[in-house]
Amino acid sequence: MTAKDYGIIVAVLILTFITLRLFERFIPHHRREPHNDVAGFIFATVSVVFAVPLAFVVVALWTNNDTAHQTTFKEANELAGIYWISRQMPLPLGSQLEHETLDYAHTVIDDEWPLLAKHETSPKATNLVYQIRDSVFAFHPTDISQQVLYDHALTHVESMAEQRRERLNQTEESLPPLLWAILIGSALVTIAFTFLFGLSSSFAHTVMVMTLAALVVVSLVVVREMSYPYSGTMKVDPTAFQVFLARLPTPR
């Protein structure tokens, strides 16, 4: 988690502690204690209202992150397909296409990946996609074997471009404001409801409330970290492209 996330957690805990102290000062525990049984029954329902949407959101975001991870590997696999076909093409076109695929992989890792966290893309990487496509179109097969290479290369190029578009679309995926409102609203109600319990030990009551508040706010921070596949502590890394570049033969 970032320093901002820790700041949010600390701020919420401090605010909860101050609010609880003020609440206990104006409504002493002996006025609340007779209603603990009813409050406990209602609190069980309130906590479920928070837990169900939270579980739904976490599963959805985890699925999105897994999909984004798979998309990067599909894109890198298609790029690898173009690379190995380029080494079978006649010179100088084959060498040109080979270097373009390597340039694209390096550009995605070094230039575009940091931009994904800001929901931006690299114009250089986009231009390299066009260059790769143009290089494949510039290949004119002269026999059946070259025709097969051309067909496979064209398929890989179109599939790579499709997976790239999918990856860029995933950089904008986030929770709708309505879901955030539901999560934050239900979290506030859940924490606030614990104030209604009356315990003779103020220390024990404070520990219980603060523990619950910490769990709730940490859960929301984790959701925030998972909201975008290419940013946060659980972000998708360019591992697929790094694997592609590892142990490649000497360029022609």
Please characterize this protein's 3D structure.
By secondary structure, the chain is an all-alpha fold. Helix content is 77%, strand content 0%. The protein has helices at 3-26, 29-32, 36-86, 93-116, 123-137, 144-170, 177-193, 202-226, 239-245. α1 runs antiparallel to α8 (202-226) and α5 packs antiparallel against α6. It is rod-shaped and about 95 Å long.
Q: Average pLDDT value?
A: 89
Uncertain ranges: none
Q: Could you tell me the radius of gyration in angstroms? A: 27 Å
- Residue share in helix: over 70%
Strand-pairing-aware structural class? mainly alpha
| Helix segment tally | 9
What's the helix-strand series? Answer: HHHHHHHHH
Biggest sheet descriptor? none
Summary keywords:
252 residues; mainly alpha
Short structural description:
With 252 residues, this protein is mainly alpha-helical.
Describe how the helices and strands are arranged:
Layout: H1 3-26, H2 29-32, H3 36-86, H4 93-116, H5 123-137, H6 144-170, H7 177-193, H8 202-226, H9 239-245
Helix pairs in contact: 1-8, 3-4, 3-6, 3-7, 3-8, 3-9, 4-5, 4-9, 5-6, 7-8
